[in-house]
């Protein structure tokens, strides 16, 4: 379990992390989501003692990171997959980690197999690795000591869709066995695919947290519908007290899909497409972090 | 709302990473990259080359046998040339390649890491000098037999000790520059400018050396802040040797000891202390 309490980090007048508090529970994958420069990496660096906090603290399983003996055996950390010597081979990088933690060298082979790096790839120098391979190696390094807590900064960065699916399976399985996983990303769909729990951060502040359902619960219901007779359907929905506005080839209605389906059924109109038109997490994310985005939230069309 | 922070992570069964293990890992880091292996191979190559050259000169000319202490003097040159780069980069590569993020995540005590590196650097100095001594052990009888004379085993424990101390001090100086600058090219440049241009000795006499020989004020002032000149009386064992024709003070007395301590404090002590403080405080990006 990772407990972050009132964490604040200021650099002169600039506040990189502003009173951040959250808990990453064991058995769950917690996604730390925010645009670039929102304070995710700074928060994670403070967690593992690489950066001192200005105020507040982080406890991992009740301990400060610096008080955990042989921390690699308890907390797996991947902060930057490229932060390894480019002249070392993948195998050598893992061997150094295993040696430090006091693990047998067989553990290196196990981890290489786990992240699907072949023997041939493990003998290559890091400078010849793709970003995806570096991420796999970084995951292997984080898992070396069989830790019960994982802290991963942008682990899916550079992975292809198959790689992201692989990571999801890996981390879900890890959490199902009771592990605590905290991972960050600036890409919503990555976190949405992997995380059970989400923490949205913008300009150093937490703007929302909870599971996907909780986050979307405040969202007004909306439906996108297309039928063989949209005009008649719009009339039927208006009669029932709903507002239907043309959207693309169909209509956008300010109610849920069941109500729209019922209205179409009673009016005898054939539906060709019916789906939820909720703004979804993407819009929520952009709304919540709108004032923290580098680019002002774009209006319709391309911005100059 | 903060959850009760009851420890859920049982760390009672885990020991700290033993210090000895940190040292062996640091030694391995010096030699597991291409740069490390190339520097050590070139050093070995230079040693072999010099070894061969000396034997060739002995065999072809009538210059006589090189004694054991001659061999130590000759063979300590190549080990002092490139090995310091390893002592510098063992620190600076952690910043340049950003591996410090990983190193300090596995051992949060930065002081332990700095100390482990320090011990590794000292071990490197001892190992390289031992290697040179080993060659000297072979070279002394070999050179003597080529010259048709009996071997002269005149190297004292003092000779060997000062050779070792000199090598270790210069490695620690490089290490200190590395800690202070946290940047490989800068630390290597500062090191070689000081050692080769200011102090000199290996290839050409350095600026400080020339000033020391040429001027009275040079003899009064420079031994206080040139490590090479402050070390000279001890390396020569009170024997003026090549300097017999020159009016320089090479006696071993309290003044010489004080000068050496000050020079070592300036070039080894200060960089080590200030550099360690910098590493302890540096924020890793």
Short description:
The complex is a heterodimer of chains A (304) and B (285). By secondary structure, chain A is an alpha/beta fold.
Summarize the structure in words.
- The complex is a heterodimer of chains A (304) and B (285).
- Chain A is of the alpha/beta class and 304 residues long.
- Chain A has 2 domains: 2-211, Rossmann fold, CATH 3.40.50; 223-278, no CATH class.
- Helices cover 35% and strands 26% of the residues of chain A.
- In chain A, the strands form 3 sheets. A 6-stranded mixed sheet of chain A has the order 5-6-7-3-8-9, sandwiched between helices. Chain A has a 4-stranded antiparallel sheet with strand order 11-12-10-13, covered by helices on one side. Chain A has a 3-stranded antiparallel sheet with strand order 2-1-4, with helices on one face.
- In chain A, strand 6 (149-152), helix 6 and strand 7 (180-185) form a beta-alpha-beta unit.
- In chain A, helix 2 crosses helix 3.
- Chain B has 285 residues and is an all-alpha fold.
- Chain B has one domain (19-281).
- In chain B, helix 2 (34-60) packs parallel to helix 6 (110-146) and helix 7 packs across helix 8 (184-199).
- At the A-B interface, helix 2 of A face helix 1 and helix 5 of B.
Key words describing this protein structure:
heterodimer, A: 304 residues, 2 domains, six-stranded mixed beta sheet, four-stranded antiparallel beta sheet, 26% strand, B: 285 residues, disordered N terminus
- How confident is the prediction overall: mean pLDDT of chain A? 88
| Side-by-side strand order of the widest sheet of chain A | 5-6-7-3-8-9
* Secondary structure: number of strands of chain A: 13
Structural category of chain B is: mainly alpha
The number of domains of chain A is: 2
Count of separate DSSP helical elements of chain A:
11
Class based on secondary structure composition and strand pairing of chain A? alpha/beta
The count of β-strands of chain B is 0
CATH-defined topology of the largest domain in chain A: Rossmann fold
Strand content of chain B: under 5%
CATH architecture of the largest domain in chain A: 3-Layer(aba) Sandwich
Let me know the largest β-sheet of chain A. 6 strands, mixed
Fraction of residues of chain B in helices? over 70%
* CATH class label of the largest domain in chain A: Alpha Beta
């Amino acid at each position: 379990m990772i407990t972050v309490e009132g964490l604040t980090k200021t650099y002169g007048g600039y506040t990189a992390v502003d009173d951040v508090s959250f808990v990453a529970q064991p058995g769950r994958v917690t996604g730390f989501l925010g645009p670039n420069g929102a304070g995710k990496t700074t928060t994670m660096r403070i967690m593992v003692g690489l950066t001192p906090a200005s105020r507040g603290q982080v406890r991992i399983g009740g301990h400060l990171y610096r008080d955990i003996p042989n921390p690699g055996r308890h907390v797996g950390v991947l902060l930057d997959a490229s932060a390894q010597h480019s002249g070392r081979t993948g195998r050598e990088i893992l061997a150094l980690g295993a040696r430090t933690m006091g693990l047998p060298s067989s553990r290196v082979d196990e981890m290489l197999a786990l992240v699907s790096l072949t023997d041939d790839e493990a003998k290559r120098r890091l400078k010849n690795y793709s970003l995806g391979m570096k991420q796999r190696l970084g995951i292997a390094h984080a898992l070396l000591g069989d830790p019960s807590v994982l802290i991963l900064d942008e682990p899916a960065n550079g992975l292809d869709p198959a790689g992201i699916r692989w990571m999801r399976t890996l981390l879900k399985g890890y959490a199902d066995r009771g592990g605590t996983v905290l991972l960050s990303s600036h890409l919503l769909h990555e976190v949405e695919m992997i995380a059970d729990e989400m923490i949205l951060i913008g300009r150093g502040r937490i703007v929302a947290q909870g599971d996907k359902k909780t986050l979307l619960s405040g969202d007004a219901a909306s439906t996108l519908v297309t039928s063989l007779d949209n005009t008649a359907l719009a009339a039927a929905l208006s009669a029932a007290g709903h507002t239907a506005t043309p959207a693309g080839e169909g209509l956008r209605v300010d109610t849920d899909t069941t109500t729209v389906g019922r209205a179409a059924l009673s009016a005898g109109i054939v539906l060709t497409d019916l789906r939820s038109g909720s703004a979804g997490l993407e819009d929520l994310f952009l709304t919540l972090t709108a004032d923290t985005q580098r680019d002002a939230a774009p209006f319709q069309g391309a911005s100059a | 709302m903060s959850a009760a922070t009851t420890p859920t992570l049982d760390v009672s069964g885990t020991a700290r990473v033993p210090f000895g293990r940190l040292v062996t890992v640091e030694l391995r880091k010096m030699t597991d990259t291409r740069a490390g292996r190339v520097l050590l191979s070139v050093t070995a190559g230079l040693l072999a080359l010099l070894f061969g050259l000396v034997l060739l000169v002995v065999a072809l000319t009538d210059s006589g046998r090189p004694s054991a202490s001659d061999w130590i003097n000759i063979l300590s040159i190549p080990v002092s040339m490139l090995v310091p780069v390893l002592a510098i980069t063992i620190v600076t590569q952690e910043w340049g390649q950003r591996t410090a993020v990983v190193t300090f995540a596995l051992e949060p005590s930065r002081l332990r890491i700095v100390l482990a590196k320090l011990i590794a650097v000292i071990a490197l100095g001892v190992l390289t000098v031992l290697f040179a001594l080993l060659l000297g052990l072979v070279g002394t009888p070999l050179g003597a037999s080529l010259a048709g004379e009996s071997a002269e085993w005149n190297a004292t424990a003092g000779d060997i000790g000062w050779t070792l101390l000199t090598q270790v001090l210069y490695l620690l100086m490089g290490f200190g520059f590395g800690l202070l600058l946290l940047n490989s090219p800068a630390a290597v440049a500062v090191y070689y400018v000081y050692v080769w241009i200011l102090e000199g000795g290996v290839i050409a006499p350095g600026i400080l050396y020339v000033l020391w020989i040429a001027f009275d004020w040079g003899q009064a002032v420079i031994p206080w802040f040139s490590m090479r000149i402050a070390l000279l009386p001890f390396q020569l064992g009170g024997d003026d040797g090549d300097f017999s024709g020159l009016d320089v003070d090479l006696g071993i007395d309290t003044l010489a000891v004080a000068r050496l301590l000050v020079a070592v404090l300036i070039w080894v002590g200060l960089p080590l202390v200030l550099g360690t403080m910098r590493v302890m405080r540096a924020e890793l990006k």
